[in-house]
Structure of SEC14-like protein 6:
Amino acid sequence: PKGSYPGSIYIYDMDQLTFANATDKKGIEYMIKYFKVCQDFYPGIMETMFVINISSYFMIPLSIVKSCLSTSFISLVQFHGPDGWKEELLKIIDADQLPAFLGGNRTDPDGNPLCKTIAVQGGKIDEKHYIHKSKNSLVNAPGVEKTTLSRASFSEIELEVKEDGSLIEWEFETKTRDIGFGLFYKEFVDGEEKITELVPLLRIDTEDYSETGVYRCERAGTYVVLFDNSYSWLRSKEIYYRIKIVNSKEMEAGMQN
């Protein structure tokens, strides 16, 4: 208990977190709003929070979310990779109360270790609920630019970020099939160009649904968005995209709204 109120323990499992999930702008915004409500209106209710099975993808939204929360709130959160978290959970939760899939002994009456009678299991949303890009296409949206990549080619878009902590937001779709996408930081060290990969280059299928994402820039400088079609020896790709740089003041104003 915390004072006269019971403390809550939250467990978030990041297993199977994809690049699209990790960089989704709307998802990150909802996450920030949820945690700010917990922080600002229900202080003291959260005893601790476990975020388990984190991967390198998880670090992308984490840097954004942390910048919007207090250090006292963040200090209540424990971050764990694929190992070690079961032992930590058992230090504060009795094994007979902790579901078996989290390292405890508790199961459903039928022996199911997922304990579906007491725990709502997350999962992928059925695609029937997705908004197909035919209903919300970028093609005719304001501020959208178009580029066509011939087969075995790529396109680099340089962005000058002037303020530490700014966000780079992107949205793009291809007319057909997939396209490679990545984000890099470019600098000159001792007179030589150095390129650092920030968002790993991945082939992303946007034939049916647009791809949205966001990245927090720890420092000002030159960032490079890469659209890559070098793997395709037969087909050119038509890409529609919007890229925006949001500084800290604009980000704070957006959160207040």
